[in-house]
Design a protein that fits this description.
Two copies of one chain form a homodimer. Helices cover 43% and strands 16% of the residues of chain A. By secondary structure, chain A is of the alpha/beta class. The first copy, chain A, is elongated. Chain A binds a DNA duplex through helix 2 and helix 4.
DNA sequence: CTATTTTGCGCAATCGTTTGCGCTTTTACT
DNA sequence: AGTAAAAGCGCAAACGATTGCGCAAAATAG
């Protein structure tokens, strides 16, 4: 089983490479190749167990049927779930996926994009880190690019993201409706768009209900367990304890829980908890945590659909100015 | 920014495509291209912002610098962690990764492998589902293949896996040393090699200590929450309750916990728990769960190293008969 | 039985790079 | 000055597939 090419089959059958190519790519009828020729060539190809060389195919057709996916950290369940959805979507459509993990580094991201361009991918889906869409906008001029999960403010790049503002608002209002008044939000990286939007939702909801005595405070600066732990410790040992904490991510939540338990406080009696992002484990914590669930499936599907549409409609240049925010939903636990 | 090729640069500079190619691939000195020529061409290339076409490069050189990774379910934290490790390892070595999620289907796996062969990947790392290594062994004749996490019994395929027998033995002995005597193991898919090995370890440890009154029983048939729940319910409501349960996976464990809690039983007073596979969340459950941790990092590194060595040593045909089992370790929680 | 159409297929260029070989022009040496 | 060696670069053939164009043979028409 060395190397089987069209040339091999051509020699074996006596037909030209062109004919073999047309037959094996299913263009036989279109080029009026005789049915018996088609059958014959097909048969020989199978017996050789011929495998088409997709590299050569790509070079010639200028299509690789490959999509590049770039995420900040595939080890994060949030992104691995998202990746799983996207990978499967694309497989169903006949595309294969190149995956890069940037580890939240913009340098890695730029490098990954360049690699993808070099590899002539048909499209790129990226969860951008950093705040400089410039180079992505350049690329988007020649290759379809779609942002997911995070986006930029003044950009023409298409994106599909969660409506984090709504999520933040929703969670906060839920706490308020449950009777909590002294709210604390523990946020992640402040410059990141999802974080800012969640915060905006939190602040807006709190001030919309300031008349009923709702007071708010914010803390934190990273999507990490340590951050949640540290801020919670500080707040709960201060003179003015919050009665409810809104963790902006699951990692932050874990830190919050750790601190709360170490302090011997009960959830939700002493302090209520609500969190952002869903995870199966949250149902098994004690108590199960109420959280905002991002519509990952919808995001993955829309992103996939649109990028494929962009690829296939490429009448010379790429157009696709759609920017979509999808409302998340709330999953109730017993932590409020 | 249309398309910049060697030809473009060749025309712009007046030098031949060959010269441009040699310069831009760093072979300038080797072919004694004048330094000023090198500088000039390099400069022009940058100003055009030339991007090499890796497809053409691959076609010519017969190397794609691409590795195919096949996992059964990227949404499973176990595999996403493993994938993250492998992806990063390969990135550091200059390879890009194609990722496929087979969703535990052998059909998908075969298809994925074929796609990879077609795409001329330089190597394949696969967590195989199913029990028919045949087609993989064929492939391995022409492309380096390494199995991870799961392997086949009578195969020449190289693999790097956890020593699941040791893990099973270790967990069981731990329970016994803690004083538990009525042990139950809830297993996953019975035909899968890791499951069988864990079971073998469990049974062996139990019978090695049968003199001290250790009794064993087994149940279950799938790596799912439902399975853990169902079997635990059955066992704990039977006349003969186990005093310790060994869950063969995190998912099974979650089911076990669910049942235990619903029955109002305490961990570890009423029943002790130990589980296979590590996960950050296990420390936040109440109580933190004692578990066997698989050496994912080591597995990822060895697999990467060896496949790269196989690729680079390819003096015509692939050789690499190494089959490695790595001992897992035990992380203590408070569930025993 | 000739003229036209249809059928069935092959030629050769092309995609963008790499690379073995060889051709000029310098430079060095005696 | 004459010759040999070295420096600097280009030709053209790959890699394996696709595809516009066109040619011969067979079928149909007239």
């Amino acid at each position: 089983m060395k190397k089987d090419t069209l040339l091999t089959i051509s020699e074996r059958t006596g037909y030209s490479v062109s004919t073999v190519s047309r037959v094996l790519s299913g263009q036989g009828p279109k080029y009026r190749i005789a049915q018996k020729t088609i059958d014959y060539i097909t048969e020989v190809a199978r017996s050789c167990n011929y495998t088409p060389n997709l590299i050569a195919h790509s070079l010639r057709t200028n299509r690789t049927n490959t999509i590049g996916l770039i995420v900040p950290n595939i080890d994060n369940p949030f992104f691995s779930t998202l990746a799983a959805i996207i990978i499967n979507q694309f497989k169903m459509r006949g595309y294969t996926l190149l995956l890069t993990d940037t580890m939240e580094s913009e340098t890695n991201e730029v490098q990954a994009v360049n690699t993808y361009v070099s590899r002539q991918v048909d499209g790129i889906i990226v969860v951008p880190v950093g705040n400089s869409p410039g180079y992505l906008e350049d690329i988007a001029g020649s290759i379809p690019v779609v942002l997911i999960d995070r986006y930029f403010e003044d950009t023409t790049l298409p994106y599909v993201c969660t409506d984090n503002y709504s999520g933040g608002y929703m969670a906060t209002e839920y706490l308020i409706n449950k009777g909590y008044r002294k709210l604390m939000a523990v946020q992640g990286v402040r410059t990141s768009m999802p974080n800012r939007e969640r915060m905006r939702g939190f602040l807006q909801a709190a001030s919309d209900h300031s008349a009923s005595g709702v007071r708010k405070r914010t803390a934190g600066d990273s999507f990490s367990v340590e951050n949640g732990y540290k801020e919670t410790m500080a707040a709960m040992t201060s003179g003015d304890r919050p009665d409810a904490i809104f963790a902006f991510s699951t990692t932050i939540l874990l830190g919050v829980i750790k601190a709360v338990k170490e302090l011997g406080l009960r959830i939700p009696e002493d302090v209520a908890l609500i969190s952002f992002d869903n995870n199966r484990f949250l149902d098994y914590l004690d108590p199960a945590i109420t959280r905002i669930e991002q519509p990952l499936h919808t995001i993955g599907e829309i992103a996939t659909d649109s990028i494929i549409r962009m690829i296939e409609s490429e009448d010379g240049h790429v157009s696709g100015q759609f920017q979509i925010l999808i409302r998340p939903s709330l999953i109730e636990g017993r932590s409020c």
